[in-house]
Amino acid sequence: MNTMPCETDQAVEDIYRSEWGRILATLIGLYKDFELAEEAAQEAFAAAIHQWRIEGVPQQPRAWIIQTAKHKAIDRLRRETRFTQAVQLIAQTSPAQPVEEPDYDGMRIPDDRLQLIFTCCHPSLGLEAQVALTLRTLGGLETDEIARAFLVSPTTMAQRLVRAKRKIQKAGIPYQVPALDEMPERLEAVLIVIYLIFNEGYSATRGGQLLRTDLCAEAIRLARVVRSLITPPPSEVTALCALMLLHDARREARFDEAGDVVLLEEQDRRRWNRAQIEEALRLLEEPRTEEAGPYAIQAAIAALHCRAERAEDTDWVEILKLYDALEHEQPSPIVSLNRAVAVAMVHGSGQALALINELAAAGNLDGYYLMHSARGEMLRRLGSFDEAARSYEQALALVNNESERRFLERKIGEIEFSKIEADKQQSLS
């Protein structure tokens, strides 16, 4: 049965986006070789594009990809003539026909994915390498998407990923969930990874849609299962669960019917998921096992936004205090940028612009479009329309997502209109 190429290509892309982490985790569990597993998976997806156009999309597409990748891996091992015994063992255990893996929901996360995230977050790797490798393998993020999260070039990130994969193989790092007494030393990286996966889902680097609900749901599930592994659960794990639930609760209101971005202060709060917000608030009320960390502070900020019935009811004074604490606890240019936005709401756009200009002068956020966008907004509020438009144009040059692109183009159009209106008023006065 022939299918339209565009329909087949879309089906392959959908499977890749939603199932890459599960597929790769299964293959790495079989071969204990990151590069072999990734190359075999990529070859299987390439084969799917060709074969599914002719035969149609199979009823069990994930199982088809896994089985095809197994054959690709065996062929590669045979061609290379090494690991003969491993090839024979794998061939003996491979089923003749694709067998669909069971569906997992709620707390039932496949062991392969848990093993993969903890393997990638082994303490013998540097923290950045741990996080980047897990984002690539489990989250299925592309190199440039990961590079954006670390504010480095794609070339630099590609080199880090190659080194990390080779170090795991050479060091013989075991592919398993660690014992309870070994978890604390890996927990920081695991939580960073989970939140970055969520952030990529919440604000996708590329494509027509800004929101990837598959990644958001995966991150929330992973946080819940990590929380279940340790009793009592660490406060930061609980806080991260709450933080993601609070952000995710607003997703239905983040876009209008045309798919365009709706800013937080303009959202219809009746569309927020109140049940999810209540769940998150209950988590934040649980007794803490340690002092509030970065995730707890961020969750407290998100909770203040969600508790406000109207945008004008938002307690920005308290939010600014929390950003002060967050900047002290986890100093970073992005935290400082977010704090500057809170400063604008409490002390005015002039003070906020001064802070953003300092961040711009430092150069750390040159490739971060939200810094240029925030600067453009402060300049717009202050009536510096020409400079505001230039900042928004800088932001526009940095985005690949169509929803964000349309939003920035709309802001530039609004600035042009405001400038025309201001010129008219000036000519009349």
Walkthrough of the structure:
The chain is mainly α. Helix content is 69%, strand content 1%. The chain has 19 helices and two strands. It has helices spanning 5-31, 34-55, 61-80, 84-93, 111-120, 127-137, 143-150, 154-171, 184-202, 213-229, 235-248, 274-284, 294-307, 316-329, 333-347, 349-362, 369-381, 385-396, 402-428; strands spanning 206-207, 400-401. A two-stranded parallel sheet has the order 1-2. Mean pLDDT is 83; it is low at 93-110.
Task: Give the SSE layout.
Blueprint: H1 5-31, H2 34-55, H3 61-80, H4 84-93, H5 111-120, H6 127-137, H7 143-150, H8 154-171, H9 184-202, E1 206-207, H10 213-229, H11 235-248, H12 274-284, H13 294-307, H14 316-329, H15 333-347, H16 349-362, H17 369-381, H18 385-396, E2 400-401, H19 402-428
Parallel strand pairs: 1-2
Helix pairs in contact: 1-2, 1-3, 1-5, 2-3, 3-4, 6-7, 6-8, 6-9, 7-8, 9-10, 9-11, 10-11, 11-12, 11-13, 12-13, 13-14, 14-15, 15-16, 16-17, 17-18, 18-19
